[in-house]
Specification:
Number of helices: 3
Oligomer: single chain
Order of helices and strands: HEEEEEEHHE
CATH superfamily: Electron Transport, Fmn-binding Protein, Chain A
Radius of gyration: 21 Å
Helix content: 10-25%
CATH topology: Pnp Oxidase, Chain A
CATH class: Mainly Beta
Strand order of the largest sheet: 2-1-5-6-7-4-3
Structural class: alpha+beta
Strand content: 25-35%
Distance between the termini: 66 Å
CATH architecture: Roll
Length: 172
């Protein structure tokens, strides 16, 4: 088995086991839910779905995947993004799998039509190139500043004047 096939097999296995990956394009990283079909990661973005920058057809993105067991980074691979359009023959099978795996859809029957009108469906096909792989992970912390947001809390946090002291119960 060649190294390229090993990376593709590992990417496929991780994508089938987890439902969240991190996609990096043009310097910004986004957590995305996904599913796997026919050797490609499937994503829906835009509209009411998850935010993702406008990744053009044929662009290269990096996909970081973590272990489901301990959350540690296992693999960062390069992939070629392909937009799946409603008039493509792949639209039906791709959206059927996405609808099946998408949690909390308002209406399963009309989800694909809604995505056709308001969202972008993409396939990300692994190229075989990696940035990080098992045994070759970077020591970088991968921390990032949160993006600017106008989100606020609803009000001040409650004040606690007296904390309850917890003591061990007497056994004798």
């Amino acid at each position: 088995m060649s190294d390229d096939l090993t990376i593709r097999a590992l990417a496929a296995e991780l994508s089938k086991k987890t439902s969240t990956s991190w996609v990096t394009y043009a310097g910004s990283t986004h957590a995305v839910w996904h599913t796997w079909l026919d050797d490609a990661l499937l994503l829906v973005s835009g509209g009411d779905e998850q935010p993702l920058p406008d990744v053009p057809d044929g662009a290269t993105v990096e996909v970081t995947q973590r272990s489901k067991d301990n959350g540690g980074r296992l693999l960062t691979w390069a992939g070629r993004a392909e937009v799946v359009r409603p008039d493509d023959e792949a639209w039906g099978p791709v959206t059927a799998v996405l609808v099946r795996d998408r949690l909390n859809l308002a209406d399963l029957a009309t989800a694909a039509d809604h995505w056709a009108a308001h969202s972008t469906v993409r396939r990300v096909v692994p190229t075989g190139a990696t940035t990080e792989s098992p045994g070759d992970l970077s020591d970088d912390a991968h921390r990032a500043e949160p993006p600017e947001s106008n989100a606020t809390t609803r009000g001040p946090l409650p004040r606690v004047l007296h904390k309850r002291v917890r003591r061990r119960p007497r056994l004798s």
